[in-house]
Amino acid sequence: MRTQKMERTKIAICMGSSCFSRGNRTNLGVIQEWMESNKANDRFELTGRLCCEQCSKGPIIEINDKAIKVESIEHLHQLLEKNYD
Questions:
Q1: CA 63 to CA 45: how far, in whole Å?
Q2: Dihedral angle of Cα 66, 46, 58, 82, to the nearest 10 degrees
Q3: Domain that holds residue 20
Q4: How many C-beta atoms surround the C-beta of residue 40 within 10 A?
Q5: Are 15 and 52 in contact, with CB atoms under 8 Å apart?
Q6: Nearest to residue 76, comparing CAs of 33, 43, 39, 42?
Q7: CATH number of domain containing 80
Q8: 16: number of Cβ within 10 Å
Q9: What does the pLDDT look like over 43-71, one tens digit per residue?
């Protein structure tokens, strides 16, 4: 019997100095805490990446290769919940 492996949502956090200082330092912790509290570690693949070259728009995260400006912690939670389903 074969079991179908669920595809994981890929989240990449820009670790460039601009994005990191504009909020991705906090966003990293928020994502890790959200994944742990929702037992979602098997549903997401969380990585860091070098500069996304969108410094003036930061902080930037990528979800499945789509760059998104994180407006607030509430916005980040909405993004995570939307991609959890």
A1: 10
A2: 60
A3: 10-84
A4: 18
A5: no
A6: 33
A7: 3.40.30.10
A8: 21
A9: 999 999 998 888 899 999 999 999 999 99
Domain count, the chain: 1
**Whole-number percent of the chain with pLDDT over 70:** 92
Give a yes or no: residue 5 inside a domain: no
State the pLDDT at residue 37. 94
Question: What is the model's pTM?
Answer: 0.86
Q: What is the pLDDT of residue 64?
A: 96
> In this structure, is residue 17 part of a structural domain?
yes
Gyration radius of the chain's alpha carbons: 13
Cα–Cα distance list, 47 to 2, 4, 19, 65, 77 (Å): 29, 24, 15, 12, 17
Q: Is residue 3 part of a domain?
A: no
* 65 CA to centre of own chain: 10
Judge whether 61 lies within some domain: yes
